[in-house]
Design goal:
Layout lengths: L5 E2 L19 E6 L2 E6 L10 H16 L5 E6 L3 E3 L8 H12 L11 H7 L4 E5 L2 E3 L1 H8 L2 E5 L3 E3 L13 H9 L1 H10 L3 E2 H7 L4 E3 L4 H13 L3 H15 L3 H16 L2 H11 L10
Parallel strand pairs: 3-4, 4-6, 5-7, 6-8, 7-9, 8-11
Antiparallel strand pairs: 1-2, 2-3, 9-10
Helix pairs in contact: 3-4, 4-5, 5-6, 9-10
């Protein structure tokens, strides 16, 4: 295994992630070329969520956040599905109990309704690579990411209404931000399944690509991001999400505050020098 590829999981103590393949029961984790890839790995259950899924997903996200080699995070699913939400064959009370227990922890520790907050708490850009069905909580996973790249075979659905439930895990907020209130109401009230083309039309995903080219396309986009200045990436993400929920004057003030911080970094000096010398900048994250 080359030095650029490391597998396993991080301890919650915040120590540097160890090398070697430790593995999760329901996830795989890989860092290569500055890109951490978290793959939900219950293909026999369409990557549906159970108690172990929540524990493993929280650990994988924490690892990605702490991983010094990772500048961008990809989240995808093994097999034919992205994630189909809660596993209906698992006892729901057990999942709720686990969620309640995890809720008492930090946003990077896991929990039933907490995973969307965990994804948004990542200090690195996140890309959902939707290879198949993204339904219920699985759609929430995708919506919580910063960018969504979808296969032509992707399908997006809520389905809560057909089970006598309401959307959870922040889906009402995330979906409304993505597609607007009226379309969000239509999708929630009808339980309609959107194919990739209509999802793109609705603004639910950033791009749709041929299924066989999905990961190549997503990694290409991630590679572009991974070459950018890490501090500026992190602070741009903060500014975008703060700006989305602020008035203009507040957004301007916050941008000035973060801009001042960026201007003090070695990467800013490198960016200026590279511009003058007409070459690609070699950002180090300082």
């Amino acid at each position: 295994m080359d030095a650029g590829t490391r597998l396993g999981h991080v301890e919650s103590s915040g120590r540097r992630p160890a090398g070697g393949h430790v593995g999760y029961e329901t996830m795989t984790y890989e860092t290569r070329d500055g890109i951490a890839t978290i793959t939900m790995n219950r293909p026999e259950r369409s990557n549906a969520m159970n108690a172990q899924w929540f524990q493993d997903f929280g650990a994988a996200l924490e690892r990605a956040n702490l991983d010094p080699e990772a500048r961008v995070v990809i989240i995808t699913g093994a097999g034919k599905a992205f994630c189909t939400g809660g596993d209906m064959k698992e006892p729901i009370p057990e999942l709720l109990t686990e969620g309640e227990r995890q809720l008492r922890r930090s946003p990077l520790s896991g929990g039933l309704p907490m995973f969307t907050l965990q994804i948004r708490a990542l200090e690195k850009p996140s890309i959902a690579v939707v290879n198949g069905a993204a339904a219920g909580g699985g759609l929430a996973v995708a919506l919580a990411c910063d960018v969504i790249v979808a296969s032509e075979r992707a399908r997006f659905a809520l389905g809560y209404i057909d089970r006598g439930l309401i959307p959870d895990s922040g889906t009402t907020h995330l979906l409304t931000q993505a597609v607007g209130l009226h379309r969000a109401c239509e999708l929630v009230f009808s339980g309609e399944v959107l194919d990739a083309a209509r999802a793109f039309e609705y603004g639910l995903c950033n791009r749709v690509v041929a299924h066989d080219e999905l990961m190549v396309s997503a990694r290409g986009l991630a590679s572009v991001m991974a070459r950018k200045a890490p501090v500026a990436l992190r602070l741009s993400k903060r500014a975008l999400y703060r700006g989305a929920e602020s008035d203009l004057a507040t957004a301007v003030d916050y941008e000035l505050f973060l801009m001042h911080h960026c201007a003090q970094t070695a990467d800013f000096a490198e960016g200026k020098e590279a511009f003058v010398e007409k070459r690609d900048a070699a950002f180090q994250g300082d």
